[in-house]
Amino acid sequence: GDIDMSTANDCMQKGLKILAGGNVIPSGDILLSPDTQNQIQELMSTFWSDLYMSPEDAQAKYAKIISTAD
Asked: What range does the domain containing 64 cover?
């Protein structure tokens, strides 16, 4: 490759090893439909703006979105 591994720190070396394994999804967006992505974005926006939504509620809603994703 084009990386001088003598200058790579431990974190970079570990990351490169993970990527070299070939079993990494570059982005969850690859697996999620635009509708599901929008639902997640709406949930995150609501979570950060609604003082009454608990982290547990947000996690439960996120799990529901993922479990019913198309």
From this structure: 27-70
